[in-house]
Amino acid sequence: MSTVERPVIVAGYDGSATAQQAVMWAAAEATSRNFGLVVVQAVSLPALPEMASTPAGWVTPQFNVDEQQALLGHADSELESVAAACRKAHPGLDVTPRAVSGRGPETLAQIASDAQLLVIGPSGRTALPRALLGSTAAELMHTYRRPIVIVRHPAEQPDGKRVVVGVDGSQTSTNAIDFAFDFADRHGYDLLAVHAWSDLPLDALAPVRTWDYAWQDIHEKGERMFAESLAGHRQRHPNVDVRQVISPDRPTHALLEHAQDAALLVVGSHGRGMLKRALLGSVSHAVAYHAPCPVAIVRPPEDPEAE
């Protein structure tokens, strides 16, 4: 049964600076959509001690209920402070803090099962470099079946005024385009649609030699794909200024290059099929690891390829 009964955005929180930034990003997005915000902190149960032998026999370990309640109480207090900061920044925003016992990825996925969006930070409490993701973010990218945004640390985010979206003509790409146009329209941003020609040989790590291919044909096919993919969205969002780029580079490289000064990078998940994904890797996961801005990964709610 769903744990979300109204349109909300769910933000994961663990006390880290990256999580705080993710929550504030989620608060701004919830305000722009007129949704509620649920801020969730998953509290792991204290580890059980090993069984011990006593003169009276073996003693079975038990959960320390007092310690568990103390952890939940501390999380509740911290979440109330976070919720207060969200309400101060966005008066009128409905914020619900929730401290829940459980493992982070499963807890967030369950609470956000019907949410409009899940927002998380990349690295948790660890001092990991930007190119790494924490275990919670990495796992949720594989298992969560609704749109998810990974928000980078504020020091790493450019003050961008445009949204970048990857376009490849697939249904998953269409879902990403929907998300990107809606976000750009509500925030008054421009939109840059990027198509990277990716029908590469298997030695895909080698440099791309564009002169080996019929670039004119590739460009014409790309223009037709843009026309088919973007036409309806342009009509529904006439205020969004749209530019198109056809790149001879691989999708990951092209998207990261154009996201250097972006407010948000939007990609679909699993747009090109199992074989190509196995050979070239998932573009959505690659940009989530390396992007200089927040990344939205958009997957259909009933994606049969979800792992």
UniProtKB/TrEMBL annotation:
<comment type="similarity">
    <text>Belongs to the universal stress protein A family.</text>
</comment>
<dbReference type="Pfam" id="PF00582">
    <property type="entry name" value="Usp"/>
</dbReference>
<feature type="domain" description="UspA">
    <location>
        <begin position="9"/>
        <end position="152"/>
    </location>
</feature>
<dbReference type="InterPro" id="IPR006016">
    <property type="entry name" value="UspA"/>
</dbReference>
<protein>
    <submittedName>
        <fullName>Nucleotide-binding universal stress protein, UspA family</fullName>
    </submittedName>
</protein>
<dbReference type="InterPro" id="IPR014729">
    <property type="entry name" value="Rossmann-like_a/b/a_fold"/>
</dbReference>
<dbReference type="InterPro" id="IPR006015">
    <property type="entry name" value="Universal_stress_UspA"/>
</dbReference>
<feature type="domain" description="UspA">
    <location>
        <begin position="161"/>
        <end position="299"/>
    </location>
</feature>
